[in-house]
Structure formats: structure tokens, C-alpha cells
């Protein structure tokens, strides 16, 4: 696929739908160990399982991503994003069937803060234990909306968006790295080239406070050779660094979208988040046509999702 084929609406729609398909593939087996997947690997869309949801159901990962995407259509406004998050928690906004399920503790606490009127930049958790993947799993729309934004400004927005729920510098750094990588894929780079470029583009920012002290936690990411690690050294749990590592590992080793997301799900543990984060990147690179049509068509509220993806593509790169 040439870069020109990856720069249009197919890559933007592919990113959004690729994220949701990965999420839905992981929902039925969430929190199950990798040993279960080695005996019974996921090979397609399943239903029920962990949260007893029908096939094609996406989780809070997808909901908060859709809430973010919709809020960013009219410009970068953290309060508008925050308002959508509160609507999601209180009214089931942008959920598959009218109610949220499987909400992370850090995210729930932060949204309750937002509901009480705490400013968006002050709502997210700042403790060491507040570094779950709850902001990384929803950050992708920023890249899809502003794929050509200068890197320093893009990083600043990624950090701010993370702070709504996860304000620790470690979570902010993970979101920034992922967002820049997504824009490199949107620019037509291969995963391998985009990964190396991202390291070069973000390093000067992350060598400064408050991020410099976090770099040791990302040593394997910034080493540039994470794809060479064996599977046993890749963790599928909900820690933000592990989710970033796993998504990169799955993307860099695969030859198709299908391979990326199934590899992610079969790592076990936080399967929906790992597959959503990896699937967003894979959907950008392979485009909407690279995602199995049956998986896309089987998503809950697929008509609404397609409409939002089209609006996102139509407004991309505008201020």
C-alpha cells in the first residue's frame, strides 16, 4: 500500500473502526490468562464470556474513544470531552446498549470529579498506582483529527487529554508516544519506520521534566527493538507501559490487521484494551478495507460508528 492510499478517509475510518473491532474481539475473554488462550485461541468474533455481552460489543475503551472523537469534531476543547465522559457514565452515552460496563477505578473516580466541576486538567489521578491504560485506550481520535499538527503541539494535547482521567506523567508519556506514532502511520510510514521516527521525534520532549524521570520505565520502547522480544516477555495486563509495549509488539510483528488484533487478544488478561490500542494503529496502516468486513459489520451500532468516522475524516487536519 502506498502512502497516498493511507492518507485519506480509509486510514482515518480504519483507525477508528480498527480500534472498536479490536475492543469487541477482546471483550468476551477479558481477564482470562494467556494459558487459556493457548488452549483455546480466539480466531474470530465471539459473544458472551466475561461480561455476558453479545458478539460485536465494545467496552468502555470504545465508548470513551467515541466520546472523544465526537467532542473533537468542533475543535480541541477539554471541557467538551469531559462533558461527554460524564454523559457516558451517567446516561450511557456512546455505549453499545445504553449502559456502561467494565469501568476502571481510576477512570470512574476522575469522571466523578469532572461531574463535580473539577477542571479537566485537575481531574485525573496523579499517583503511581494511577497508571492503568485508561487514557491510552481512548487517545487515538486526537491523531485522527489532527494528523499534521506539529509534534510539540500534538504532544501537549495528548498530555492534556490524558489528564482528564490519568494525569501521572507516565500515562501522559504513553499517550504522547502513541499519538505521534499514529500520525506517522497516517503520513504513510510503515510501522517499523514510523516507530523509529516516533522515538526520534518525541525524545527531546521526554528528556525534560516531568517526563525524564519516567524514561527508565519506557526503556524497552525507546530501545527501538521491542519487536525482537519473545512473547513471554510481553505482558497483556492493564498497566499503561505494558499496553503500549504489547500494542507495538503486535503491530511490528504482523503482516495483516487480523494478525495484529488476534495476537493482541491471545496475549490474555486485558484483552479488549490491548487489542483496541493495537487495532487502532493497525486499522490506520491497513485501512478500512484491511479489516475483515464481517467483523466491522458485526459491531454494535455500526451505522452510528460509520457516520462518526466519516465526520472525523471530513474534519481531519482542520484547526
Q: How would you summarize what this structure contains?
A:
This protein has 319 residues and is an all-alpha fold. It contains 17 helices and no strands.
Report on this structure.
The protein has 319 residues and is mainly α. The chain has a single domain, classed as ADP-ribosylglycohydrolase fold (Orthogonal Bundle), CATH 1.10.4080.10. It has helices spanning 3-6, 9-26, 34-39, 60-72, 78-91, 105-115, 120-123, 140-145, 151-163, 169-186, 191-206, 219-222, 240-253, 257-265, 271-286, 293-297, 302-315.
CATH topology: ADP-ribosylglycohydrolase fold
Biggest sheet overview:
none
Strand-and-helix sequence, N→C? HHHHHHHHHHHHHHHHH
In DSSP terms (H or I, runs of 4 or more residues), the helix count works out at 17
- Whole-Å distance between the termini? 28 Å
Radius of gyration computed on alpha carbons: 17 Å
According to DSSP, the number of beta strands is 0
Helix content: 55-70%
Give a topology summary.
Layout: H1 3-6, H2 9-26, H3 34-39, H4 60-72, H5 78-91, H6 105-115, H7 120-123, H8 140-145, H9 151-163, H10 169-186, H11 191-206, H12 219-222, H13 240-253, H14 257-265, H15 271-286, H16 293-297, H17 302-315
Helix pairs in contact: 2-4, 2-14, 2-15, 2-17, 4-5, 5-6, 9-10, 10-11, 10-15, 13-14, 13-15, 14-15
Amino acid at each position: 500500500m502506498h502512502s497516498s492510499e493511507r492518507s485519506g478517509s480509509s486510514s482515518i475510518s480504519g483507525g477508528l473502526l480498527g480500534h472498536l473491532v479490536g475492543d469487541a474481539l477482546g471483550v468476551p475473554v477479558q481477564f482470562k490468562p494467556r494459558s487459556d488462550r493457548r488452549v483455546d485461541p480466539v480466531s474470530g468474533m465471539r459473544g458472551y464470556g466475561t461480561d455476558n455481552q453479545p458478539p460485536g460489543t465494545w467496552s468502555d475503551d470504545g465508548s470513551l474513544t467515541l466520546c472523544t472523537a465526537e467532542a473533537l469534531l468542533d475543535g480541541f476543547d477539554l471541557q467538551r470531552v469531559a462533558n461527554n465522559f460524564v454523559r457516558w457514565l451517567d446516561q450511557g452515552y456512546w455505549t453499545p446498549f445504553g449502559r456502561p460496563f467494565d469501568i476502571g477505578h481510576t477512570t470512574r473516580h476522575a469522571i466523578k470529579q469532572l461531574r463535580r466541576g473539577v477542571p479537566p486538567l485537575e481531574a485525573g489521578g496523579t499517583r503511581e498506582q494511577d497508571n492503568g491504560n485508561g487514557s491510552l485506550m481512548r487517545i487515538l481520535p486526537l491523531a485522527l483529527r489532527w494528523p499534521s499538527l506539529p509534534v510539540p503541539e500534538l504532544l501537549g494535547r495528548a498530555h492534556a487529554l490524558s489528564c482528564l482521567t490519568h494525569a501521572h506523567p507516565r500515562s501522559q508519556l504513553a499517550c504522547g508516544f502513541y499519538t505521534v506514532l499514529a500520525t506517522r502511520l497516517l503520513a504513510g510510514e510503515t510501522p517499523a519506520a514510523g516507530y523509529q521516527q516516533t522515538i526520534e521525534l518525541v525524545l527531546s520532549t521526554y528528556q525534560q521534566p516531568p517526563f525524564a524521570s519516567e524514561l527508565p520505565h519506557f526503556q524497552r520502547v525507546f530501545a527501538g527493538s521491542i519487536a525482537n522480544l519473545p512473547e513471554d516477555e510481553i505482558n497483556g495486563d492493564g498497566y499503561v507501559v505494558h499496553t503500549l509495549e504489547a500494542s507495538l509488539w503486535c503491530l511490528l510483528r504482523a503482516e495483516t490487521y487480523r494478525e495484529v488484533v488476534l495476537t493482541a487478544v491471545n496475549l490474555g488478561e486485558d484483552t479488549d484494551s490491548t487489542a483496541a490500542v493495537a487495532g487502532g494503529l493497525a486499522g490506520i496502516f491497513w485501512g478500512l478495507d484491511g479489516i475483515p468486513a464481517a467483523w466491522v459489520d458485526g459491531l454494535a451500532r455500526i451505522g452510528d460508528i460509520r457516520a462518526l468516522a466519516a465526520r472525523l475524516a471530513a474534519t481531519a487536519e482542520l484547526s
